[in-house]
TrEMBL record:
Xref: InterPro entries: GSKIP, GSKIP_dom, GSKIP_dom_sf
A GO CC annotation given for this chain: cytoplasm
Superkingdom per UniProt: Eukaryota
Protein family: Belongs to the GSKIP family.
Protein name per UniProt: GSKIP protein
Residue stretches making up the GSKIP domain: 34-134
Organism: Ceuthmochares aereus
Residues in the signal sequence: none
């Protein structure tokens, strides 16, 4: 298993490359880098948890990244992100326990939904507010 540099590549925003473009075929570029995926996961749901960040301690590679999350209930988890999905691998920041046999979740939403009732409430409220805003937009 080859580890890669964990710093996300800074691409100029005017490049306009699509994920399904020929760009990913270039030697040395890995558009499906799990660290970039992990950063996207964090940015998606950070508003609905107390704290969440990609681990700088645990090794990330092309096929795996680790995310630390603290729910609004103050429970801490270490999540593993792979092509198979997300799962809890530890009960503390930067902690993994090989004995844990937790199920994979296809999305961060379903994983957090199963761990945190407060997440479910905050996320649901945000969704309702967005729907209300869309409703007002369509009426004007």
């Amino acid at each position: 298993r080859m580890e890669t540099d964990c710093n996300p590549v800074e691409l100029p925003s005017n490049m306009g490359f699509e994920e399904d473009s020929d760009y990913r075929d270039f030697e040395g570029t890995d558009v499906k880098d799990m660290r970039l995926e992990a950063e996207a996961v964090v940015n998606d749901v950070l508003f609905a948890v107390s704290n969440m960040f990609v681990s700088k301690t645990l090794p990330c590679a092309e096929d795996v990244a680790y995310i630390n999350v603290e729910t609004r209930e103050r429970n801490r988890y270490c999540l593993e992100l792979t092509e198979a999905g997300l799962r809890v691998v530890g009960y503390g920041f930067d902690q993994t326990d090989d004995r844990l046999q937790t199920p994979y979740h296809e999305t961060v939403y379903s994983l957090l939904d199963s761990l945190s009732p407060a997440y479910r409430e905050v996320f649901g409220n945000a969704l309702l507010q967005r729907l209300e805003a869309l409703k007002k937009e369509s009426q004007s």
